């Protein structure tokens, strides 16, 4: 589990860390450029993160074939997911270029910020197909239990972007100063390098296969991937609706409240990122065990992975509990924001061990291809737990306590659902093809 999880963690963390660096470089241009990058980057992130099934769905399917000893079929999943990513990426580029101006105007409500965001987005959006190729590549490589190559590929691409970004934005080393568009160019160049490495890995695997896997699009495989993707997209939309609603309601309680909410939410996202590395290992392990017909071993592994995830989560919770007076001060010195952080800090700490259960068993069920159950349970948890408490917080002026009570209810309901499903063993279906249905 650690062999798979440890390389996966920096892959998950690399993009958020690079975004902070990108903000620091562009921030030297002033507030307008920074706002343009924030809005343009948000649009690109929203349209690509809805397609994470290219990673998680492909891992579920490829890992079963890997467990069954059919490496060629696992590589085929990668090839078809890559075709799907290219097609979806080109569609995204065309649509975003067509509607960029009106959408950005609505999002910003400010002509200058909208213009800055558009100058970034009209270049940055060409990275969408490249991002989706990398998602597909991550998916099939995780499925065959290789998380080291994705780490090298991602670091190579982001490392190149990190070097180019200040050079192109500020005109260093004899290059012209492109300003904000220079950030977008650096992003696309780095994404091109990462995508090229993933395509190269597919080509090498295909050449090494005893019977070469067809490279042309296979409509049957793509259709099966889209069926799995449909469930994961609906699940992702539930998350988006919840967190956008939470941000909207927090903003109604004043600048201090929304600042505190965002600080603690960023820390929650950090915890989620860390625990997700264990979920990735769970996907790959469970899929391979079921693909090889080892159902009893898969059931035992599910609970073992959950126990280790809880131990790790308790350690994280202990660290944040011990840092309750120090950690918030790293992000802000504003007394109003710090006061609001204190209101919700213990919600955050207490939820972390529960998240250890949720993320581990999410990974187990994703690895088994049980995306339909995860879709339904997440939607119900959002509709029954998170969203009602968020909007009741606004109506009854419960403040951040109400919002974070909603998040706690969301996490608890999801934990109950995945524990029940795992205990039922309905997910533990042997065979290489289960993930295709």
UniProtKB/TrEMBL annotation:
Q: Where in the cell is it found?
A: Membrane
**What topology in the membrane does the UniProt record assign?**
Multi-pass membrane protein
Tell me the Pfam families matching this sequence.
MatE
The main place the protein resides is: membrane
- Record's Gene Ontology CC terms? plasma membrane
- Tree of life domain: Bacteria
Record has Cell inner membrane as a keyword: no
User: Transmembrane residues, as ranges?
Assistant: 23-45, 81-100, 120-141, 153-178, 184-204, 232-250, 270-298, 310-332, 344-366, 378-396, 402-420
| GO MF, one annotated term | antiporter activity
Sorted alphabetically, which InterPro entries does this protein's record hold? DinF-like, MATE_fam
Keywords (alphabetical) are: Membrane, Transmembrane, Transmembrane helix
Give the family, as the similarity comment puts it. Answer: Belongs to the multi antimicrobial extrusion (MATE) (TC 2.A.66.1) family.
This chain belongs to the protein called: Mate efflux family protein
Originating species? Hoyosella subflava (strain DSM 45089 / JCM 17490 / NBRC 109087 / DQS3-9A1) (Amycolicicoccus subflavus)
């Amino acid at each position: 589990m650690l062999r798979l999880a440890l390389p996966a963690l920096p892959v998950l963390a690399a993009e958020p860390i690079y975004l902070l660096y990108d903000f620091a470089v562009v921030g030297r241009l002033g507030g307008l450029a920074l706002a343009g990058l924030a809005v343009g980057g948000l649009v690109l992130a929203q349209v690509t993160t809805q397609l994470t099934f290219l990673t998680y769905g492909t891992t579920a399917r490829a890992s079963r074939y890997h467990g069954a000893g059919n490496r060629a079929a696992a590589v085929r999943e990668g090839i078809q997911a890559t075709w799907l990513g290219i097609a979806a990426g080109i569609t995204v580029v065309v649509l975003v270029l067509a509607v960029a101006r009106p959408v950005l105007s609505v999002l910003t409500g400010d002509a200058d910020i909208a213009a800055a965001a558009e100058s970034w987005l009209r270049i940055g959006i060409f990275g969408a197909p490249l991002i989706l190729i990398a998602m597909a590549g991550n998916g099939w490589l995780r499925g065959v239990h290789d998380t080291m190559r994705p780490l090298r590929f991602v670091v190579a691409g982001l490392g190149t972007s990190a070097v180019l970004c200040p050079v192109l934005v500020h005109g260093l080393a004899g290059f012209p100063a492109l300003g904000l568009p220079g950030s977008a160019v650096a992003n696309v160049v780095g994404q091109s390098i990462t995508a090229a490495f993933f395509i190269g890995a597919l080509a090498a695997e295909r050449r090494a296969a005893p019977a070469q896997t067809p490279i042309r699009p296979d409509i049957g495989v793509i259709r099966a991937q889209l069926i799995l993707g449909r469930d994961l997209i609906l699940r992702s939309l539930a998350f988006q609706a919840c967190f956008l609603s939470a941000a909207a309601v927090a903003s109604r309680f004043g600048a201090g409240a929304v600042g505190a909410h965002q600080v603690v939410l960023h820390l929650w996202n950090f915890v989620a990122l860390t625990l997700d590395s264990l979920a990735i290992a769970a996907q790959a392990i469970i899929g391979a065990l079921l693909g090889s017909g080892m159902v009893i071993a898969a059931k035992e592994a599910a609970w073992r992975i959950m126990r280790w995830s809880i131990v790790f989560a308790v350690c994280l919770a202990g660290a944040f509990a011990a840092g309750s007076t120090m950690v918030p001060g790293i992000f802000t010195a504003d007394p109003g924001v710090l006061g609001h952080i204190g209101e919700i800090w213990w919600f955050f700490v207490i939820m972390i061990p529960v998240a250890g259960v949720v993320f581990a068993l999410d990974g187990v069920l994703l690895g088994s291809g049980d995306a339909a159950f995860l879709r339904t349970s997440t939607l119900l948890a959002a509709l029954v737990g998170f969203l009602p408490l968020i909007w009741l917080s606004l109506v009854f002026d419960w403040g951040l306590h109400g919002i974070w009570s909603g998040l706690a209810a969301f996490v608890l309901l999801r934990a109950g659902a995945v524990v029940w499903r795992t205990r039922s063993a309905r997910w533990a279906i042997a065979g290489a093809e289960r993930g295709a249905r």
